[in-house]
Amino acid sequence: SWSIFEDRILYQLLVLLQPPSRHSFRLEMYSGTRLPERCSNIRVVLECTCLREMGNIPCFAHPSRDNQTAQHSPLLQTLCTGSYLDVEEIACWVQNLVQTAWEHLPQWQHWQLTVLPSSHCCRLLLSGPSDLQLCAVLVFAVEQGSP
Hints:
Elements: E1 2-5, E2 8-16, E3 23-27, E4 42-46, H1 74-79, E5 80-81, E6 84-85, H2 87-102, E7 112-116, E8 122-127, E9 133-141
Parallel strand pairs: 2-9
Antiparallel strand pairs: 1-2, 3-4, 5-6, 7-8, 8-9
């Protein structure tokens, strides 16, 4: 959605997260009345690929014959707390990715990018040569029923 407030245009974008290959997302309900502070209730499940024709791709869920330890998932190491998606980690990762990518775009010389503080979404403010400002809010979600 988008809206206009005086000299600022606000865009709100829904970003649907898809699990990478060999992973799936599972929604879990908590028995308590509150969710934990840093974790969502979306568990990342490592899928077994031992019986599939995957070539030389290691299975995250089981140890390999050569290496007796299970492979580590970059998703679990980067964007999760334990085995649950962590919205703060996702927001921080996207903010850093956008800041790094911004410098490689031709517009960066004429527009200033400011990442606004937020722990549950990614909020970006673009200030251009005029007094017009663009604010983009990226809200992260997982589609219910997705694999």
